[in-house]
Amino acid sequence: MKYTENEMKQILEQEIEIPKKVDERLQDTYSRIRTQNKTRTTHAKKSWRKITAAAAVAALTLTVTGGTAAAAYISEHTDFFQGMFGNTTKSSQEHTQVLADPDKDDGMMADLPGKEYVSVDEEKADALIGGNVTEVNITKEIGGHTLTIENIVTDGNGMLMSMTLEKPGGVTALYADDETNRTKGAYFSPESNFSFFIEDQNGIPSGEFMYVDTEKSTPDKYYIYDYMIWGSTESTPIQPRLHIYTYPVTLGELQEINETDTEKRDQIEVTEDYVDLPQCENVPMQSLNQDDTWICSYSPISMSINMSAQAPEEEAQDPYCIKYIELKYKDGTNYTIFKQDELDNTGYICGVDTEFRLTYNRIVNPDDISQIIINDNVYDIN
Q: Among 247, 276, 305, where does a domain finish?
């Protein structure tokens, strides 16, 4: 189909801020294209390492203590749980400061928050969300690549999805390395002639963070763990679908055309395709209220915070008003989810209207929570 100038402009100016239409897809890619060649040397090199047969065997080996074999719990969702919540291939990082703009020698620094990954209790994860994990196994051929969506789980606020992207001779559609796993996630490369995202039945895209497992992946096959937040403010059940854009040129060429040749831009034909994903049974969320005011809702995989309960009305749509989030557990342990600029133990985080929404980077049992701390406010869970 041919697009009008306004429609083409919308495609070329997609932004990631929910609920804007297309989730920073191309806009973010374009900014990266302009700086990628200059800044790539500051990024960590790709570190693709195959899991050896010995390591795979070791992971399944029984441990023997005092002559008694103790078998580890093995879940049918092991790959999903380990990829989403575990630390077998994810390394914790300390808070650091980096140059705000590597192209400028102005000394301006930016905070790169630390991240903490912990081991996942698969038996606990199975009990909490195992019945809600949907095995999708939908495969789509796009631009010489094979995309396979494997598993999804959602609570209506956030969604977690595992998938693979492969191409003989090497994946070229995504740029991903250890640096993207710390910053904004994998993104579509200037060599790609397609892009995709997940949206709801109303066409509202999810915000997302694509983590590519650089330990498990190879150049020919990426293992991707996608942390998503839904942009809809409605409470209706969500029917997720894959929305694919295919272009007659690469994204790099499309960016150049967009900037230099508006007449040619208007002639570009963009193909759209949709793939319905299974509608999942939502993981239950619990709500916390105080004095008839909704404070937050939380599940084993995500949380949504009412910013209006934490800041004056004029500030309640600014996610920066949330500076600290912590869960305290009944056994005396805790999970610091977020400490502004210093620690970010979320899978993905964003603002939707006056809500501060996030997915965790570990599994949470809501029944274990004794207190929820948001900024300086402490809320007891009864």
A: 276
Domain boundary residue, one of 276, 300, 318? 276
- Tokens linked to 174: 């995504």
What pTM does this model have?
Answer: 0.82
Q: Smallest Cα–Cα separation from 87: which of 338, 343, 361? A: 361
Of 30, 348, 37, 32, nearest to 181 by C-alpha is: 348
Number of domains in the chain: 2
Same domain, 250 and 163: yes
pLDDT grade for 97, boundaries at 50, 70 and 90? confident
Shared domain for 305 and 271, answered yes or no, is no
Distance from C-alpha of 270 to C-alpha of 272, rounded to nearest angstrom? 7
Domain hosting 343: range is 286-380
Tokens 């040619």 correspond to 264
Q: Are residues 266 and 311 in the same domain?
A: no
Residues 137 and 217 in one domain: yes
How do residues 165-184 score in pLDDT, each as one tens digit? 999 999 999 999 999 999 99
Q: Name the residue among 361, 29, 27 with its Cα closest to residue 174.
A: 29
